[in-house]
Amino acid sequence: MVTFKECDLLSVATYVQGSEKVPSFILNTRNRPIRNGFYSIYAFQYPDGSKYAVQLPTYMPHESEEERSAISTTIDEEIKTLELLINVKFPWSPRPVTYSSNFDNVLKFPFMILSLTHGDHLQWNDQVPADLKVREKVMMQLAHIMIDLATVTEQMGIFQSRPWNYHSTDRFVDTGMTCERFLLDIVDKKTLAVIREDMAGVNIVECLQLRKLVREAFLIPNEVYSHPGECLEGCTHMRNNERCMKNVNRLCTKSSTSISHENLTADNIMIDTDYNIQGLINWSFAKRLPMRLALRLPLLLSIESHKLEDTADDMPNLISRYLVPSQKMQQDREAYAFHLTRELIQKIPPSTITGSTIAECAPLACEVYDVDWKHLIFMASYSTRTHWWMARRKWLLDGTFAHLSGKLLDQEKGWDHDVPLEVYRFAERNISEHGTAVRKKFALKNFRRSKAGQALQWEYVFRWLYGHFREKVAVVEGEK
């Protein structure tokens, strides 16, 4: 673990109020810094009573140049998020004071100085807190904060998103895209990285299977469908077609976006002795997402899927462990859903609620059907480890409904048809827009040499996949 001299830490702390005022360590962090996520936190207080925290990402790998660059990006992005939240007057996040995202400073390590959020970390499980009224009080406050965050950070138009792990650069994204298209964009980038052999641990067939599961999880028809009703074919995650048809037309509309904390566990919720929420900390995973994804259940109300274990359990045990919430968690979710709906009614004027994206997406945040399976599919899109784990657990394809009904779908059944069909959809979505003229102008072998030529990378992927599954794709195209 990285250690720092006391004098250097105090020297950095004086950036807040100047060298004439010397702060002192509090909360015993002088000898034992608080660990939160991959941060080490040193808390200090000035004579006037103001309290601040020096946060250092000491638990992130930092040996190679690439790892150091990743740390700098993480610090820069979190500061941008916190500054945005201050600008829109969101009161539940810490206030950034100063920071250094490089290793050229007194500590020789990147750091942030933030206002210290008062209180203690929330303790939350099926046994604590035991009082049901206290649990509902926390759910009520959390619903209020989530609607407030979605409201003050809602945005339409174009925004620049942070890079992800697939060797890509910052990208501009249409905030009006649906959540399905947003996730398919990420999966397709992952597929391209696998084709180029830039990513280990996953294969192309798994990427194509994940494309199919993303569309099933979020119940929106792919662009290749001629009308919304076609998405009903093969959809294993609906109780009946009537319910699907009620949702499809609403979900096919474009969505606004908002900031999502994305790591809202009990450790990142600060409370006082009466369980009043004082603030949310650790915004390092925050990102801008389509509204429906941003309003998902917080991790506090999710099964601990981030602690996936590499066990050899059979499918019923896996489903029971990762997809079926406890009775107490289900009660907490219902309380959260109730208060989220009430906050929505109070926050959005009746005259504008019909056209409000938040009003349309909030009920989806309250849905309980396969919500944990959908969360795992979402995480598999972003996380290579979750992708690997899910693919080797047959994607837990039938989810909660399979467990309750006692029916387990044979994972291999249907994939022979689904994989080449996804090749077709993948190609349709990613290369059709570039046109014949572009393909004639730039030779395929030179597509990496110019920005315009980068468009042809999708043709390269398509040709590779088409050759790999040539016979099956020909059958699918013949059917169409």
One letter per element, helices H and strands E, the order comes to HEEEEHEEEHEEHHHEEEEHHHHHHHHHHH
Structure class: alpha+beta
| Count of the domains | 3
Shape: globular
Helix content: 40-55%
Approximately what portion of the residues adopt beta-strand conformation?
Answer: 5-15%
Spans where pLDDT lies below 50 across 5 or more residues: 158-175, 220-253, 400-416, 432-459, 468-480
Query: How many extended strands?
Result: 13
Number of helices: 17
CA radius of gyration is 24 Å
Q: What is the CA-CA span between the terminal residues?
A: 59 Å
State mean pLDDT (0 to 100 scale): 75
Summed up:
With 480 residues, the chain is an alpha+beta fold. The protein is built from 17 helices and 13 strands. InterPro entries: AGP_Transferase.
Write the SSE topology.
Layout: H1 6-13, E1 24-25, E2 34-36, E3 39-45, E4 51-56, H2 65-87, E5 96-100, E6 111-115, E7 120-121, H3 132-153, E8 158-161, E9 171-174, H4 179-195, H5 204-218, H6 241-251, E10 257-260, E11 269-271, E12 277-280, E13 287-290, H7 291-294, H8 315-322, H9 327-347, H10 357-365, H11 371-382, H12 384-391, H13 399-405, H14 415-431, H15 435-441, H16 457-468, H17 470-479
Antiparallel strand pairs: 1-3, 2-3, 3-4, 4-6, 5-6, 7-11, 8-9, 10-13, 11-12
Helix pairs in contact: 3-9, 4-5, 5-11, 5-14, 9-10, 11-12, 14-16, 14-17
InterPro entries: AGP_Transferase
Q: What are the main properties of this structure?
A:
480 residues, alpha+beta, Phosphorylase Kinase, domain 1, 3 domains, three-stranded antiparallel β-sheet, 13 strands, 11% strand, AGP_Transferase
